[in-house]
Q: What sequence folds into this?
């Protein structure tokens, strides 16, 4: 999941790392040969209170197997560079 998240979701230009992952769950096993898909949904985004020009984004990530069962869910927190207004 983290490889797909890093390669296809995070911006190579704006990403500044993150403080961690919250609410990590594995509700079902992943088996050899399973086909996995990832859905990322921004739950919350706000400017950083202590670092101007940065934002904090909370993204709910869900991984599904070929049957549509959730096999992993988590909230990933990232720091991102913000564009200036205007």
A:
């Amino acid at each position: 999941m983290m490889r797909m998240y890093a390669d296809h979701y995070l911006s190579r230009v704006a990403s500044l790392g993150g403080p961690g992952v919250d609410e990590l769950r594995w509700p079902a096993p992943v088996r050899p040969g399973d086909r996995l898909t990832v859905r990322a949904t921004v739950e919350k985004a706000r400017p950083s209170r202590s670092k101007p020009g940065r934002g904090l984004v909370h993204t709910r990530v869900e991984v599904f197997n070929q049957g549509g069962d959730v096999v992993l869910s988590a909230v990933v927190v990232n720091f991102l560079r913000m564009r200036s207004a205007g």
Observations:
- The first helix runs from residue 2 to 8.
- The radius of gyration is 15 Å.
- The domain at 2-81 is CATH 3.10.129.10 (Thiol Ester Dehydrase; Chain A).
- The chain has one domain: 2-81.
